[in-house]
Amino acid sequence: MKTPSAQSMLLAAAALLCLGAASAAAQDAAMGDMMMINPSALKWVDAPPGLPKGAKLAVLYGDPGKDGPYVVRLKTPGGYKVPPHWHTQTENLTVISGTLYLGSGDTMDMGAAHALKTGGFHNLPGGMHHYAFTRAATVVQIHGTGPLDIKYVNPQDDPSPKQ
């Protein structure tokens, strides 16, 4: 049996490297418009004025203020409360960390709220009246089809600046 020469081994190694590079290039091309974001790259800003002060928001995908799909994260401090409200569109929410307490109806009954823990999911059809609060710092991810809006059951609960 003949042993391979150094030249044939180098050619084989070069061919393998080329195949690996071609495979990586094909994979990059196949990813196209795919998007990946690590937590350290999130850009947190103050939540919009329609939410009570103290929360931070990061947009992961889309524009929640426009028609079309969106994904946002909302970071809230402990003791954060969103009074009874509703949204025009369906809202999907996943708890990333902490616990979010959710209740339905036109009044905030903290004793009747359901604790949605880390990893929990919530689907809320548009038009359904609900409220939310936290007892400790909590991060939730919200996704749906925009525009995302918030309409308070009691207009006096709306923290938006009055014109």
UniProtKB/TrEMBL annotation:
Domain ChrR-like cupin: 34-148
Signal peptide: 1-26
Keywords: Signal
InterPro entries (UniProt xref): ChrR-like_cupin_dom (IPR025979), RmlC-like_jellyroll (IPR014710), RmlC_Cupin_sf (IPR011051)
Species name: Ralstonia pickettii
Organism lineage string: Bacteria, Pseudomonadati, Pseudomonadota, Betaproteobacteria, Burkholderiales
Pfam families named in the record: Cupin_7 (PF12973)
Isomerase as UniProt keyword: no
UniProt xrefs under Gene3D superfamilies: Jelly Rolls (2.60.120.10)
Name used for this protein in its record: Cupin domain-containing protein
